[in-house]
Amino acid sequence: MNDGKVKVLFNSGLYTFSSLLIKAIGFLLLPVYTLFLKPEDYGITNLVNSFNGVATFIVAFSLYSAVIRFYTDYKDDREKLKQLYGTIVVFVFCSGCIFIGLGFILQEILIRWFFEVIPFYPYIVIALFTLTFSSLYTVHQSIMQAMQAGKKITIINLTVFVLQVGLNLLFIGVFKLGAVGVLLAALIINVGYFIYMVIDLKVNNLASFYINKKILCEALIYSIPLMPHDLSTNIATFASRIFINRSEGLSTVGLYSVASQFGIIIDTLQGSVNKAFAPWFYDVMNQEDDNSKKEIISLSRFLLILYSLVYMGIGLFSQEVIILMTTKRYVMAWTIIPILVVAYSIKSIYYFYVNVLFYYVEAARKIFIATIIGSLADIIFAFTLVPFYGMYGAAVAFLIGKIIVVSIVVVMSKRCNDIGYRVTGMLKIVVPSILFMVTGLYFSYTKYMTVFSWTNLFYKFGVLFAYLAFLYLTNRIMINKIMKSGRLWLKTRNIHQGVSI
Hints:
By secondary structure, this protein is mainly α. 86% of the residues lie in helices and 0% in strands.
């Protein structure tokens, strides 16, 4: 196994570990949330966070992608790299301040269109200020990602995780601030991180804090065409919450939000792995030889197998987790999770193909076509299904949207550069995992929907072990080869470290 692939796997593990902690705080604190927050309060925090999930790409003009993409071009020119980072930080900060001002001016429109029954003060006010600093947080994370600083990201995110857990427990459990406490904790953490980011960039001589118009224009020319791509998925997510709120109220939004926490785990895993995979992918593509492309295909298949194990675990055992970690008011949330798991299983194919499009600047500008069409389908189906099927309609709409996006991205990628990916080969990994999961959930849906059962739990473990046996038998040559290469690499690495010491 070459050093590049190993570095991808190593940083993937670090990114995944740290990102799961910081981005899945809602899941890790489910017992606290469900104990101190009513479903309505949980619905408020999720609706507000969904709004910020959309607005962050507007504030930052999707410059996160430009930070990563142009690092490859500027990494050998320190001065230009400093100008790139400084320009983007200053621009995003100014953009955020403008967005806050517009939010106050247009507050009545915000409430009427997006936040029905949620007061502007203090909920939306806190959200607007958090938005600016959270956008800069993501910029700094992108800078470290581009530089492959996996260990640093892990340490930082662990620190942020501990601090945010502490503030949430203080505001929700001690001061009984409810939804306001959750939002206030996020604001304090992001402001504190902003101060750290400025210090870190100055100490490491990584940024010149002024706007270089030429570099800004170059970055915006690359990132603005990506905005529809970045926005559309988040808009669809936000829209589904709005429809649920108007149809069934904030309480149901809260249930759907709890279910979505499990989806966040999957999406965080996929995104974290792709953070390490994408820079390595770009470097390998620059080599332009067939052996390098075979390395891409091999590693992609291995990652997809790892994904399927996570999907199986979450899909099979989310019911038991919900029952044990939450109150009775949230039990039915688990019934949504398997639908979301299927959607994210399909989406995993997207990550591999979309890197081909991101590699080619001209192709990257067309990605929004896929995401816009898929997100429009998601919104239309949610608008149609939610009034009749509630949160289940939103989950099905989400699944349909993901299938459409993946299909379009695959076609676009093939036209751009057929590096050897095959959808049929990927589906041979994804589809069996879904079938095994459905088999394992039979008794959960038919007999034990709202109660914990040891019999049902042992049955699920039996299905999981059967799937593990199936995976090994169908991929044993590749698995054994990668494990052997990994052991050899670790042995060699340890020897070199011993010598250097």
